Amino acid sequence: MSFFGELYVRSTLPFLSAEITAREVAYLERCFTGLGPAGPVADLGCGHGRHAAPLNTSGVLAGRVVGLELDAYSLAHRLPGFPVVQGDLRALPFQTASLAGAYAWYSTLFAFSDVEHRVILQDITRCLQPGGLLVFQTVPYERLLEQPSASFQRLLPDGSRLEEESHFEAATGRDHGRRRLITPEGRVLSGAYAIRYYPLPELVQLVEAAGLSVKWVHGGLEGEPLTSASTDLIMGAGPREG
Fold this sequence. Notes:
- Keywords: Methyltransferase, Transferase.
- By secondary structure, the protein is an alpha/beta fold.
- The protein contains 7 helices and 11 strands.
- It has a 7-stranded mixed sheet with strand order 3-2-1-4-5-11-10, sandwiched between helices. Strands 6-7-8-9 form a 4-stranded antiparallel sheet, covered by helices on one side.
């Protein structure tokens, strides 16, 4: 089965507390405060909408957020309060220069091939208005280097048992993993993933080659600098002028 779908939603939500979501939403609000262009801001790979729903309900982005999600299961279980389009990150269903901004969380932009990542970023650039803003979060390459292999088992609140193993290949920058969820009814959901993590200089080069200029790089939700101890790599970028 596909990794993104019921397996991902049911195995990920228990680890995303209301406090975590609130802090991430607050960070995004600060990023988009004072956004120049009018128009919508796209949540790229919105999932069930834990960011899109609160951002579209109140605050600086109220009434401006539109979700983009390919997975039907996530869409069927999405939170109310925001419009959504079913579509693929690799072929954005938005008109040229129609978006004031966009954001993506949890390495959503980098679950494909290197060629596809270039296409995705170029297409985001196409969709952004002059003065628009892209914000995305991923994990620092160096953090994966420190702990290239991981394995755990956990009993989730609904009684499901979660098992996962992953291994990071430094040469390719890919974290390969397999996740297995055994539900209380005995159903077994399993799937594999491969997420690409770029060293910062390569990531900057990738973003700039797509026609974007890097505005900032943060190492956490308080806007702190990226260091070897950072758990996050959050980048803000906008269309290159001229």
